[in-house]
């Protein structure tokens, strides 16, 4: 096999039972088209497509629609649509090795050099060992005595840029594509560590993931057992809804960011210590494998609520499809696949780090993002938008004569696959998966109702179909040829 074939084999099963299912549709032809795109993208294009460091989403786009059942023509069309904005790879001015690894962090011209470095390391050591050594180990983040601008800070880089390096790695782990993991780690390496204040040295003091790596065998990577998606948390634990409620009442967050154009940077300057303080309140006991998923479930509910409820309650339009909060939803989809490759100490470090960046983006989008009238959202009649070309009046012999759409998700997913915007297929794929996992949840269950978040007793599994419908409407109805409205910033 060639190096490219080893980096991009046919997608394998996800490493976790809690990772998304794949819809029928992928066959020999569509899978070949997918792999051709991934290989071509790997060889030709940089991970940033412009000088503002906007991210190359080619691989995200085609993997998402392939997983939703897209045929080869759609996969090829998505790539053709995405190509014009891409930037060719840059020949690196030097090589990256163990002795020079820290010297070129944050330098995008060294992207290919870091790709070559991580190719060799993953071939030699495997994905789990590389993640531990180069992202979660203390030495990969903190060098005692070094000035701040010389600290490696690889965990901060993984979450930088709205968590895009993490998302890229997540795709690689979910689909069993080492080339995507290589690209994602190289992307992290050339990202700036702008989020460093959220990851102080103290975060790494009690983490000794490498001490337990030797006892972790490959068969342990699937952390899941029988599903119990609505199991309540243990008593006296601090739930993420508790943390949300406390932040909403905290006077330190009352004033919006001073510079609305640089909302995230302003929030980090003014509120990083407070955000870290709240992230550290979260009870993160991972003594049992099932607790890992319960904590991931909290993150997925929190980020979906923040995006959906605040968007619905926005005063200026029917639904504010926040571009930045959308990334909290799409990134949370990959949490099960990523933790499956980590040791327990690194799982804890990763999940708390992810919570920190999630809280930071939520807080940075205030005051609109703080408008969380949960009861209003769940009491509203939010019918899924109709799609004329996918609806028909069922015949008289049907179980329910005159029914227009038998499954409300069919038109939503069809829209997502066909839409030119690569983020839409990703967020609808996430909402579909969360609806599968949590859609049958009833309101009033104790684990939510007993938290401090106002209206939490009204939260039920309809969140995800409501959010998907609102998002589809905001992004335009491709099938009915309505003009797309786009993401809100």
β-sheet strand percentage: under 5%
Q: Could you describe the largest sheet, including whether it forms a barrel?
A: none
Task: Give the mean pLDDT.
Answer: 89
Q: Could you tell me the number of beta strands?
A: 0
Which structural category do the helix and sheet elements fall into?
Answer: mainly alpha
Specify the number of helices.
20
Round the Cα radius of gyration to an integer and report it. 22 Å
Enumerate the spans where pLDDT stays under 50 for 5 or more consecutive residues.
207-228
The global form is globular
User: How much helical structure, as a percent, in the residues?
Assistant: 40-55%
Report the order of strands and helices.
HHHHHHHHHHHHHHHHHHHH
Distance between the termini: 45 Å
Description:
The structure is a single chain. This protein has helices at residues 3-7, 28-44, 58-67, 72-82, 111-125, 127-136, 154-175, 178-190, 209-213, 240-248, 263-279, 289-312, 323-332, 335-339, 344-364, 374-379, 409-418, 422-438, 446-449, 463-474. It contains 20 helices and no strands. It is globular, with a radius of gyration of 22 Å. With 489 residues, the protein is mainly alpha-helical. The relative contact order is 0.12. The model is unreliable at 207-228 (pLDDT under 50). The longest helix has 24 residues, at 289-312. It starts with a helix and ends in a 15-residue tail after the last helix. Helix content is 50%, strand content 0%.
Give a nutshell description of this structure.
With 489 residues, the protein is an all-alpha fold.
């Amino acid at each position: 096999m060639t190096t490219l074939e080893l980096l991009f084999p046919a997608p394998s099963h996800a490493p976790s039972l809690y990772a998304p299912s794949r819809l029928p549709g992928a066959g020999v032809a569509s899978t070949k088209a997918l792999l051709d795109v991934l290989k071509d993208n790997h060889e030709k294009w940089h991970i940033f497509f412009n000088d503002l460091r906007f991210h190359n989403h080619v691989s995200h786009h085609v993997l998402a629609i392939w997983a939703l059942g897209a045929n080869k023509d759609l996969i090829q069309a998505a790539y053709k649509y995405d190509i014009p904005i891409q930037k060719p790879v840059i020949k690196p001015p030097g090589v990256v090795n163990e002795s020079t690894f820290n010297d070129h962090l944050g330098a995008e011209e060294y992207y290919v050099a870091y790709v070559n470095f991580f190719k060799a390391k993953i071939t030699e050591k495997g994905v789990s060992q590389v993640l531990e050594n180069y992202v979660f180990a203390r030495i990969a983040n903190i060098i005692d005595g070094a000035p701040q601008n010389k600290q490696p800070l690889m965990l901060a880089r993984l979450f930088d840029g709205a968590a895009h390096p993490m998302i890229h790695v997540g795709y690689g782990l979910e689909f069993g594509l080492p080339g995507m993991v290589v690209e994602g780690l190289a992307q992290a390496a050339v990202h700036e560590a702008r989020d460093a204040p959220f990851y102080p040295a103290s975060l790494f003091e009690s983490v000794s993931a490498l001490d337990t790596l030797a006892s972790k065998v490959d068969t342990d990577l699937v952390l899941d057992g029988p599903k119990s998606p609505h199991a309540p948390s243990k008593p006296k634990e601090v739930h993420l809804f508790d943390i949300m409620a406390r932040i909403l009442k905290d006077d330190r967050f009352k004033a919006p960011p001073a510079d609305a154009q640089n909302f995230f940077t302003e929030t980090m300057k003014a509120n990083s210590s407070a955000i870290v303080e709240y992230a550290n309140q979260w009870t993160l006991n991972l003594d049992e494998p099932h607790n890992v998923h319960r904590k991931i479930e909290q993150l997925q509910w929190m980020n979906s609520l923040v995006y959906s409820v605040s968007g619905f309650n926005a005063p200026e339009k029917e639904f504010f499809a926040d571009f930045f909060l959308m990334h909290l939803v799409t990134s949370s989809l990959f949490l099960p696949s990523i933790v499956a490759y980590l040791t327990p100490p690194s799982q804890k470090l990763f999940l708390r780090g992810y919570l920190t960046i999630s809280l930071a983006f939520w807080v940075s989008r205030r005051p609109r993002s703080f408008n969380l009238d949960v009861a209003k959202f769940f009491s509203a009649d939010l019918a899924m938008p109709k799609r004329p070309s996918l609806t028909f009046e069922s015949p008289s012999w049907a179980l329910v004569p005159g029914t227009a759409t038998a499954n409300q998700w069919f038109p939503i997913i069809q829209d997502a696959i066909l839409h030119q915007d690569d983020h839409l297929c990703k967020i609808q794929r996430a909402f579909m998966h969360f609806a599968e996992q949590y859609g049958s949840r009833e309101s009033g269950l104790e684990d939510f109702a007993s938290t401090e978040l106002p209206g939490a007793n009204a939260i039920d599994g309809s969140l995800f179909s409501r959010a998907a419908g609102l998002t589809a409407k905001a992004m335009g109805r491709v099938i009915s040829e309505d003009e797309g409205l786009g993401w809100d910033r």
